[in-house]
Amino acid sequence: MPAADKFSRLAALKPSKPMPARPAAIRTPGEEDTLGRLLGAGVASNHFGEHLAIRNWFSTPEFAEPSPTTLELLSRTRDESLSHKTRAALEDPEKWLFLDTETTGLAGGTGTYAFLIGLAWWDAGGLQVEQFFMRDFAEEHSLLQELSRRVAERPVLVTFNGKSFDWPLLENRFTMTRSIAVPKLAAHLDLLHPARALWKLRLGSVRLVELERHILDAPRLGWHRENDVSSALIPQFYFDYLRGGPAEPLAGVVRHNQMDLRGLAALFGKINEMLSESSGAANGVESLDLFGLSRFLQRRGEDDRAHSTCSLALAIGLPAEFRPKAHRELAQMAKRRGEHAHAAQMFLEIVADPHDGIHACEQLAIYYERHAKDPVKAVQFSELAIATLRRQRATSRDPFTAARSARLEQKFLQRLARLEKKTQPSSPARPQRARAAAAPKASSALW
Amino acid sequence: MPESLAVRRSTIPSSLTRVHEVLDAFAARDYDGELLTAVRHFPAREARWADFPAWVHPDLAAAYAAKGIRRLYTHQAEAAETVHAGKSVVIVTPTASGKTLCYNLPVLNATLENSDSRALYLFPTKALAQDQLAELHDLNQRLDNRFGVFTYDGDTPADARRSIREKGHIILTNPDMLHTGILPHHTRWTRLFENLRYIVLDELHTYRGVFGSHLCNVLRRLRRIARFYGRDPQFICCSATIANPGDLASRLLESDVEVLNSNGAPAAEKTFVFYNPPVVNRALGIRRSYINESSRVAQEFLKRDLQTMVFSNSRLQTEILLTYLQQANPQLPGKPETIRGYRGGYLPNERREIERGLRDGKIRGVVSTSALELGIDVGSLDTVVMAGYPGTIAATWQRAGRAGRRSGSSCAVLVASSSPLDQFIVRHPDYFFGNTPERAFIQPDNLEILINHLKCAAFELPISPNDKFGDTNLPDLCARLAEAGYLHLAGDNYHWTQEAYPADTISLRSVTSDNFVIVDITGAPTVIGEVDFPSALVFLHEKAIYIHGGQQHHVEHLDFKERRAYVKRVDVDYYTDAVRYTQVRPLEIAATKHCAGDQRVEHSYSHGDVLVRSQVVGFKKIKFFTNENIGDGKLELPENEMHTTSYWITLERPLLESLPFTVSERQSGMFGLLHALESFATLLLMCDSRDLGTAIGERPPPPDSNSSAIGAQHAAPHLGTIENFTPTRMQDAISSSPREFFEPNLYLFDAYPGGIGFSEPLFRTHALLVQKTRELIAACPCEQGCPSCVGPAGDLAPRAKEAALAILDRLCA
To answer: What is the interface pTM, i.e. ipTM, of the complex?
Structure first.
């Protein structure tokens, strides 16, 4: 069969999206200069070859001295204490390197490239940003070599989602070179996790752009993401450029990356502010953010601070939907510390809550039975719980909820049986029977 | 037959009396010698022993000794020595000959000598990997857990993966996981790749056709990545007995492979019986249901407390046989079920429980699909009953090998269905018991497959000018991929330039990724299945009755754009049969051979590239059991076009003129001949009948005329339970060419775009193919054709069988 015909019919060769009708371009040296001018870049070279480098200094965000508490909270891993070396590196802001990459895709794996690597560090009270751009895949080695050098100088990496995306991808890229070793990091602070803990409740989404707008108050800083490119389009801009398409969109990508780096540095400042103990008074901090902070602190084992922050959040005034949660957490923290009376007080606040009420009743029943030695009160809370559960079961159409309610109800009925033995040792049977008639299935387990 | 049985009886030891009682009972029913077409007795064979090679690490020898293995079978020792000498090998052994040791011994030895050494084991299924894992864990424990052995597949929890990548000395996985999970992430596997010494490919014979062609390309990628990390791993392969294990292995590995096929393992005494269900209607060639007969045979064994395994060829049949046998052997109160089913859909835990039950004898009978055919260890059973021919001789021996794996006496019974293949096998026992003629073929350079893997390869590592990828013009292909936006040339190398991850969209097991999803909209919409594009046109056209899991569904709507078929459950007394026209046009003839009769050229045969156009133009409604045509409909479905390769026979005018038949008898004869030809070709090629398409077309007039050939292809509906149904042949196709002299081409084409490598082998084995096809038809006891030879008598003109035989006589001359 004719060769052209043979190939034109292959499904495997069909373009995945329509290809622009553009002649395959071979760029002339002059055009390369245009790209450099467009991006504000100069040609950098090392023994692996060339790439473009873009350097800018920004007065904002301003340098934020990381507080020891912040460092402690951000770098604490589950159960190992930090090595002396790591601590020393962390405490020296000179060793910090903010990093953000623009890639040819989000799929990961060995066929995804970082074509733009953005770095930033504190300098002269502001932020020095340096970006490396590869004009073609052949420049990847020199790009990575440059990154390796910067990381050697500043081995504390600060990223946003870099632990699961940027850094593993770069590790892949280094491994693929077979000649440049993966640079060793002293520490890696990924701000995504604290940002999520602190602001997810309020913002729903913690994309960097959202944080910038709502947390960092970008307009006030005078930052504008004018004509910001959408992240989803970035890989295609690069592919188009590689195939001889316009370079202009890449200038937008470079700007986008700069903004992300500045946002990242500013975000650190904000997190630092929130986590540092001195700012505990938290003037002007949103109550929901405080609540988020208290949860974050709780997870890091800072119970005392978590408790006071949570109380503060409640005092300032949380939106109605979060109040029971805050009370519940306060109660749990109190309980862990052995302050049962205080915990009971907190649970008392939420006995009527549709979500946490049952749990509160249970905790109160336990409290009155074991700690306050007041079985009558314990009976009351158990009965309240049973009534609530029966109401839920009657109105719910979801079989799973109904089954769950039934299970819980049985638990309370068992508790009740035990309690009633305590309160009325002489005439045990009558009231129980009455109850048994009301819920024969559940009570059969009692006899 | 009975008297020969009696002769053997004297030599059969007493432990076989119970088996023998059953055979006697069959023989008693076998009035005319048609029931038991073969009873072959295989005497026990002594083991041939060899010592452990001197280089084996003493700890490893001790570990094996602790398991009771102090000596090796000769083939194990030979394999170990060949691997030790640094050669890639393929070991050809029957079931239960200790092939696992052939690869575990050298691999573990290398690991003990150098704890950095790594090995990758590939199994065609996850279940097999699990089974081998258990064996390796056992050895590892005896070696103080000195090495890491892990399975790595879709079931591996995400949090375990990192440590497996670091600590696994031996990784057990499957080709699909290698393709999507390991190769595209090779930078995470540097420990493995930098130290990769051995790759083990078990059940090599399963890598044939489309799957094998894909695997060959996956191995190209694997070797390429290994080279990147400076390794050139050695391959250790195991295969069941096929005719060309060496060819297949060297084709898959694209390097020289040593073939080891002497077996030193002992074998238990075994009787192999072919059982052909009795004919109930001789004129129509209808036999008793082989499912019922199989359950009857199995019950005879179970009744005598012989542990029995029944194999069926589909899930549905498994369930039916299970129902029959459980009814016959009711569960005793308070006792566990003694008859169990075993198939793909069962949960892993349940399967492990059944495997244990079989080993310790608590389960007396099991009904299984091919799931238990491969090397899962269930210990030895007394008897095996196969309901229907498994499709290949290799698979039949593997299934039979389940009986008497280690010692004792055993029996395997093959119960034939009425399909041509089954009938051929049971009527030609020598074909089966002689040297296997089955060959496994692959076509890794099929461009559709190769280009897809080339994309994956580029994703894994830029394509450099030094790269080789099959027998192709790599720079040209890369340039084309660049043009289509997949790759980009930078410096000397082509890089991947798509956001998508190519391996995700390429399945190693199916023909194309362009599938239709079947949505049941009787109640809340549920997806009940998926079929490929060409099948969708045939089985899922509007108003079709689609049978899924024994349930009939009426196709309400076929949505081409969304690739969905909406069906509703119904209960009707008919099925539908699509009428499909297939045209084949030769594009480029690779080779032709002319065969002359008396001076004149009578026929020729060829192979080459063809264009196949097919279209479903209508359907018929056919009543169950009576096979009456109770209505039909026209359909307007898009034409399906495919470039592929084909083998064909051309019947020339002199041959046809000299036959004493009418035009319509001749034409019926040709259709019948093609029917039988296809059956036999699937046997030779170890393929499924779906892998080959057939068509009859007029021979295109000499060069470059555009006239095309008309043919008709018949689509059988999915009918698991209905046996002996009579598909109506399409006379339409023939009558549409009402020429006096129809000089036809009989096409057997690869039902896969680009061809999958069947045509050239068929061309080479033409003589064998026509000769065996002739035997198949000649030996059939039916009068005027039946589904077992030329197709159902009612569909063809009378004397079709005669005409087919007459043509074959001339082809064989």
So the answer is: 0.81
